[in-house]
Amino acid sequence: MKWGIIGTGNMGSMLTTSLIRSGAAQADEITIYNRSSKKTAKLKEAFEDLDVAKTLPALCKACDIVFICVKPHDYKSIIEQVEGELHEHHCVVSITSPVSVEELEEKLSCQVARVVPSITNHALAGVSLFTFGSRISTDNQKLLREAFHHFSTPVEVEEAHIRVSSDIVSCGPAFVSFLLKEWISAANRVAGISEEKATQLTEQMIVGLGELFSQEIFTLEELMEKVTVKGGVTGVGLQALEDHTGELFVEMFKATQAKHREDKQSIEL
Ligand SMILES: NC(=O)C1=CN([C@@H]2O[C@H](COP(=O)(O)OP(=O)(O)OC[C@H]3O[C@@H](n4cnc5c(N)ncnc54)[C@H](O)[C@@H]3O)[C@@H](O)[C@H]2O)C=CC1
Ligand SMILES: O=C(O)[C@@H]1CCC=N1
């Protein structure tokens, strides 16, 4: 199977390296293309067997599965350039929430899917969100699921829940990092610990927490129960959180829902 990656920014580079590092694909099975050549040159330096296409039609000719890894508003220009080059055997994959399989199917005659990755896939971990189009063959569905299973947990999501699902798995690392920065700054302000030391403690706590989930040692509820010693400090801290969290997350999810609606209205394929 030949894989094509259009756009080798954050996500296109991550997909290229994760496909190779996880063993899902060999470097010589992947063709990459980017608007400027600096980013493809960097990948080629790391994996010399990668094929770097000079043009989008050349990439389409060389590949069966084609990932479009550009920003949502750049999809239109890519689709206009590739539509004549794609045939029944091709499968085009959107990696962005606002570009749905229905919209891609209207514009392209080939098979389509959407797979929204996460920066956590860099560590060969985390989730990838799958939505299949109506024309994609069962063989290609299986192939995509198996490839992504090498470096993530593929989860199917319905269109109605793509925004919130991606908020959790794809935007989540940024959201949680923001909250942890606030936590570190507060630790410094209230108790005088240096931000550097608090960052080291926090990062290692998160690594340990991830391992507990990864090894299925505790659930969220069990963790709260096990750490809360009766009459101890955790209970007091949890109560303070409960008293002050308020509508924080409701507002965050509302904001992303509103932006998603706005993006869908402004993105024309
Ligand atoms: N950053 C993230 O954590 C995630 C991003 N996504 C989606 O991935 C897509 C890409 O995001 P990033 O990689 O973060 O953006 P980015 O800006 O790092 O990468 C986009 C790349 O596309 C290239 N590009 C733009 N127009 C092009 C064209 N006409 N032909 C060829 N290459 C072109 C740019 O040069 C750049 O290298 C977005 O649609 C985003 O919604 C999805 C999940 C997570
Ligand atoms: O399309 C998405 O949902 C992702 C999440 C982060 C950026 N784009």
From TrEMBL:
Pathway info: Amino-acid biosynthesis; L-proline biosynthesis; L-proline from L-glutamate 5-semialdehyde: step 1/1
Record GO biological process: L-proline biosynthetic process
GO terms of molecular function: pyrroline-5-carboxylate reductase activity
EC identifiers of the protein: 1.5.1.2
Domain of life: Bacteria
Segments forming domain Pyrroline-5-carboxylate reductase catalytic N-terminal: 3-97
Record field: catalytic activity: L-proline + NAD(+) = (S)-1-pyrroline-5-carboxylate + NADH + 2 H(+); L-proline + NADP(+) = (S)-1-pyrroline-5-carboxylate + NADPH + 2 H(+)
Subcellular location: Cytoplasm
Positions bound to NADP(+): I6, G7, T8, G9, N10, M11
Start and end residues of each Pyrroline-5-carboxylate reductase dimerisation domain: 159-262
Predominant place of localization: cytoplasm
UniProt signal peptide: none
Keywords noted in UniProt: Amino-acid biosynthesis, Cytoplasm, NADP, Oxidoreductase, Proline biosynthesis
Function: Catalyzes the reduction of 1-pyrroline-5-carboxylate (PCA) to L-proline.
Family of this protein: Belongs to the pyrroline-5-carboxylate reductase family.
NCBIfam families listed in its UniProt record: PRK07680.1 (NF005814)
Protein name as annotated: Pyrroline-5-carboxylate reductase
Species of the source: Halobacillus salinus
Gene from which this protein is expressed: proC
